[in-house]
Design brief:
By secondary structure, the chain is of the alpha+beta class. The chain has twelve helices and 16 strands. Helix content is 32%, strand content 23%. Helix 1 crosses helix 10, helix 2 packs parallel to helix 3 and helix 4 crosses helix 5. It binds adenosine-5'-diphosphate.
């Protein structure tokens, strides 16, 4: 039998092939559970040395916006899911017309691709969100400023990630360049700002939370404990599972909100709901003062769930595969009282291996996960997980390992 190079080879026994568009670290981390589950993974990779292409034998190279490449790739898969949310709407529509089973569906995915569509939908569902408007002109922006005051946040509705596409507006002139770009794009009807700029009040949050849930096409859902995420310069650097000191009632309400969003939007696979924890209500706030507001959604495994690989009975990567295949979901409960995840960011030293050996020798309890990516300052190269019964101990050990691997400490 001859098969095209890099096409997925089917395993005997009727086991399916799951296609992942995008060959980043999320697709890479699906490979270990795919092996255990006995399903074949195939990834449409950006390059032969993309993170997932280094570990998945079936990794044809192609652009996620190239209709022909994506359709050819999808034709060999039983279900297709995503490593990122950048596949254009026309490509998604063509896949659906060709009979490809997309999980999540384009109808759900749009709320992770477009922050404006997400804000409109969540507001309609009564989900607590920051105050927001869409602005195309200086007058609209100044009307919003009069309502919420300075500073406020400006966001590009599409294509932002890791804080790129988000700006603090301290005075209207900070928005000049964005409003100029929006005017051109609104007129042309194309570009990330074609509907305008998303403006949001500056939320006085005490910390950031994430609620990770999974939902299958038949509607079964499972939720992991609510976690705290710590961002540094717009990048998630640390995650504590569960969120320390979170009122159990608030945790339960936040989980209900995430499950409601998954159900109402018809999400399949993993859904991450990023939230702002507002802390105790300010004096004089009414009884309806929300404890949290929803920031944004991701419909794929998410950085806030990397702790689950070592810290939960079922990892987010296994759960995503089970969910998109409509298999019964796995147990999301944690193994330990605490798991702390710290991202390994690139430092100034291209040779990571000596530091990696040191981290392993110093603390055999640290679980290291590397993504096979070249070192660039600030780039997410991997993460470490530490589980245990003391939060402080887990935090100190995870941070030490991540800082050592980055090269910012030498003991
Ligand atoms: P991205 O899609 O790039 O991750 P986000 O919308 O999550 O962008 O914003 C990145 C970070 O900016 C958030 O994690 C949060 O720290 C901060 N941020 C975003 N929106 C607001 C807001 N309305 N008020 C206060 N801080 C915000």
């Amino acid at each position: 039998m001859t098969v095209p190079a890099n096409a997925p080879v089917r395993a005997p026994g009727g086991f399916p092939v799951v296609g992942v568009i995008g060959g980043g670290q999320l697709a890479r981390m699906m490979q270990a559970p795919a092996i255990a589950l006995g399903v074949q993974l195939s990834v449409l990779a950006e390059a032969v040395d993309a993170s997932a292409a280094l570990v998945v034998p079936s990794a044809p190279v192609g652009d996620h916006a190239d209709l022909e490449a994506v359709c050819r790739f999808a034709a060999a898969c039983d279900v297709v899911t995503f490593d990122h949310e950048h596949v254009p709407a026309d490509v998604l529509a063509a896949l659906v017309s060709a009979g490809v089973m997309l999980q999540p569906s384009p109808e759900a995915l749009v709320f992770a691709q477009d922050k404006l569509a997400m804000r409109r939908k969540l507001t309609e569902l009564g989900v607590p969100c920051p105050e927001w408007v869409v602005a195309q002109t200086a007058e609209e922006a100044s009307g919003f400023a009069a309502r919420v005051g300075f500073p406020f946040m400006a966001k590009t509705p599409r294509g932002g990630y890791d804080g790129k596409g988000v700006q603090v507006v301290r005075q209207l002139s900070d928005l000049e360049a964005w409003l100029g770009a929006a005017a051109t794009q609104v007129q042309a009807g194309t570009g990330a700002l074609r509907d305008g700029i998303l403006l949001e009040e500056m939320v006085p949050f005490v910390r950031e939370l994430a609620v990770l849930v999974a939902r299958s096409p038949s509607g079964q859902a499972a939720a992991w404990p609510v976690v705290q995420t710590i961002q540094t310069d717009g990048i998630c650097t640390d995650v504590c599972a569960p969120a320390p000191g979170l009122d159990p009632e608030v945790a339960a309400a936040a989980t209900r909100t995430a499950l409601q969003i998954a159900g109402e939007l018809g999400v399949t696979g993993v859904l991450a709901v990023e939230m702002f924890d507002l802390g105790v209500p300010p004096k004089g706030a009414g009884g309806d003062h929300p404890a949290y507001l929803v920031n944004e959604l991701a419909m794929r495994p998410h950085n806030s769930g990397h702790w689950t690989i070592d810290g939960a009975v079922t990892s987010q990567f296994e759960q995503h595969l089970r969910a998109v295949l409509d298999l019964p979901l796995g147990d999301p409960r944690p193994h330990a009282a605490w798991t702390v995840m710290a991202n390994v960011l690139g430092g100034d030293y291209p040779e990571l291996y000596p530091a990696y050996r040191h981290v392993m020798a110093r603390d055999p309890g640290v679980k290291v996960h590397m993504y096979g990516k070249g070192v660039r300052p600030g780039r997410k190269l991997g993460h470490v997980n530490v589980s245990g019964s003391s939060l402080e101990d887990c935090q100190a050990r995870a941070r030490h390992a991540a800082d050592y691997l980055r090269g910012i400490i030498d003991e």
